[in-house]
Write a structure and sequence with these properties.
Blueprint: H1 6-14, H2 20-35, E1 37-38, H3 50-56, E2 60-61, H4 63-76
Parallel strand pairs: 1-2
Helix pairs in contact: 1-4, 2-4
Length: about 100
Amino acid sequence: METTGAVKDLSDTIVKGANGEVEKARAIYEWICDNTYRNPKTKGCGTGDVNFMIETKTYNGKCADLNALFTALARSQGIPARYVYGIRVAESKLG
């Protein structure tokens, strides 16, 4: 996963003025919430190609894409981050 170049440049902009890992992680989280969206037309879970997303300013996709973007931005700031996925094993009351 790339954590330099365009990824680092974007993350530096996002966390400007934040101090410490918690504030930086919160700033990245808020940026993700404000600037990305789930795209139902994305096939599968997405590709997780963070470089493509940043270079084209295409901040959408599905779980792999948005998860990878947060993880790369956090790692580029020295914040330990990893992907975490879950699988539903019981019926959902919400469908």
